[in-house]
Amino acid sequence: MRFRSFPFGIYFNIVLFLMVVVLSSGGMYIFRDTLLRNARGTGMTMAGNYAVEEQSRLTVYSTLLAFGAASIDRRFQEGGVHYMAEWMAMFFDRLQTVLGDDMVTPYIVFDDKTIDMEGRLTELPEHLARERSWYKLAMAHPGETVFTNLYEDFVTGKSVVTVARKCVQTNAVIFFDIFPQNFRFKFLPQTKTGLDSLFLCDGNGAILYRHTRFSVSDEAIQDYVTGLFQKMQAGDFEDYRASVTDLDGENCAIYYARLSNGWYIILTMPYAEILRQADFLFIFLAISTLFFFLFLAAYSRRFVRANALMERTNETVRVLGNSYY
After folding, report:
1. Shortest CA distance to 17 belongs to which of 289, 213, 256?
2. What phi, psi does 183 have (nearest 5°)?
3. pLDDT over 50 at 100, yes or no
4. Those residues with Cβ within 8 angstroms of residue 142's Cβ, 6 or more apart along the chain or in another chain
5. Mind listing the pLDDT tens digit for each residue in 5-61?
6. 106 beta partners
7. Strand pairing partners for 173?
8. In sequence order, what are the residues at sequence separation of 6 or more whose Cβ sits closer than 8 angstroms to the Cβ of residue 28?
């Protein structure tokens, strides 16, 4: 029994095929990595744009509060509380024109009195205002606009955000109550798969606004966003390859931006959308590699058969030659 080694051409074809596989795999990895890097740059820019849009809205609130606080100081010096209340009723009316009806609910707290948007004075126990977190925050930073996180108002029982500012010359605090349903964005993210999500969160991760396709309960969505917020705070999303599994089981990349008042924009984008071009390339390379393998296999088979036929022919010639001599 004789052992025959494979012809050199077979080894060459095997090495050639392995080189094609390695180069294709390397190219695929580089292309996928490039897509993830580019997607992070784009995603962080988009999150930053949403943050700028919301920041501009907060700046409007701050400007209006600053104007209102300065007006309170001036009107109070000119005519006292009742004169100030009459003028502020007109200011609040114009405020609705600027911001839109019912976008904010403005009030003024002055010692033990509250002035609503109609200019009506209401006597309240002084401790009711002093116990409010926004009141304490505003009193601690006179002349500055302060923002609260989402909390439940004990009067209405609804979740609300308060933007407040203490007057410089008087002991009054002007503030806006903003309900979550009044937060909105002009341009929303939209991928072809419709699997992207946008969240505006306060400094504790509570949802102020959401744009998502999830059809689960509000509590489940809040738990999901709280998890994202905690991971974001821990720095788990600093790597461009970082991802999470969302409530629908989709693998998503996370992009975010921080507002000046400590709120956050969180944007999620599915890997299926980011790597769609990579999937097409993978299918193309896989099919091309398969055809190349089949071609090399067929060529190698013919090469082996031709080589075997040549060896048999040479053997026959040698036998005949030996017989002749």
Report:
1. 289
2. -85, 140
3. yes
4. 166, 167, 168
5. 455 556 666 776 677 777 767 766 777 888 888 889 988 999 999 999 999 999 999
6. 176
7. 109, 166
8. 278, 281, 282, 285
Give the type of residue at 139. Answer: M
Of 109, 66, 119, 114, the closest CA to residue 88 belongs to 119
Q: Show the 3-state SS of 15-36.
A: HHHHHHHHHHHHHHHHHHHHHH
CA 297 to centroid of chain Cα atoms: 49
Q: Nearest 5 degrees, angle CA 42-CA 43-CA 46?
A: 85
Q: What is the mean pLDDT of residues 246-272?
A: 92
Which has the closest alpha carbon to 265: 320, 313, 198? 198
179, 159 contact by CB (below 8 A): yes
Predicted TM-score of the model (pTM): 0.77
Q: Which residue has the tokens 């969302």?
A: 246
Cα separation of 218 and 197, whole Å? Answer: 14
Contacts of 259 (CB under 8 A, 6+ apart): 51, 54, 55, 58, 265
